[in-house]
Amino acid sequence: MSIHILATGTSRGIGAAIAAIFDSDDIRFVGHSTTAGPDRIAADLAQAGAARRLWDGALDQLDGRIDVLINNAGIFEATPTTLSDAQWRDGWERTIQINLTAAAELSRLAVLHFQEQDRGGRIVNVASRAAYRGDSPDHWHYAASKAGMVAMTKSIARGYAKNHILAFAICPGFSMTGMADDYLASRGGDALLADIPLGRVAMPDEVAAAVRFLALDAPPSMTGAVIDINGASYVR
Ligand SMILES: NC(=O)c1ccc[n+]([C@@H]2O[C@H](COP(=O)([O-])OP(=O)(O)OC[C@H]3O[C@@H](n4cnc5c(N)ncnc54)[C@H](OP(=O)(O)O)[C@@H]3O)[C@@H](O)[C@H]2O)c1
Asked: Ligand 1: distance of its center to the CA of 81 in Å?
């Protein structure tokens, strides 16, 4: 029987690598981004109700069964402390909504679906090294959203292992995508690489390989695990 997968944020970067790695005859894969595309459902996860519409649309495309949810969509937008009170709050709300609340809404729908199907399922959440190390002064909210994602993952793992529902998180460091390019440039480019013992940032296909392992092959006893992919730039 084929494995049915829904992944968010697959139009580019790490998500595009995730979509590519699941391109296989024994997998039915539905991707997502803010705009529709081949194998992609459109949903702006900043909007209320978008997670439900995405989930229902994916279920429809996958004949009523999803086995694996991958929460990868995310934003890394600066919210400097010098903004007005209202702007700073808006920045926080937008990041928390897209990076954490929408992933939580989709995870809830997945857990309910997995319970209803009574055949278990897997959730893989793409968090960040920032969950453990923190981030820049303009990105408190980003680090907080990813730390929340890790805590949510552990809660799901502990709460539903008895139902064969497994949950994992991945914490990439810098990964060579558009988002990372901007970040590296804003931090002095190559100088930042000196902080990474491996001497380079991660490649999206390295993150995708870890996602694939957790989604398909990781032994059930690994549930609740958080996998680092950061070239030993943050070892814990
Ligand atoms: N790259 C890194 O250095 C790095 C490091 C640690 C963690 N991560 C995490 O890895 C994940 C992927 O990062 P990336 O670098 O590959 O990002 P990216 O290249 O910027 O792509 C982000 C993806 O999320 C989607 N997205 C953005 N805003 C959205 C919204 N409002 N509603 C729905 N989808 C939205 C984008 O869709 P559109 O194309 O439609 O905008 C795109 O598919 C993120 O969760 C990120 O936090 C990345």
From this structure: 23
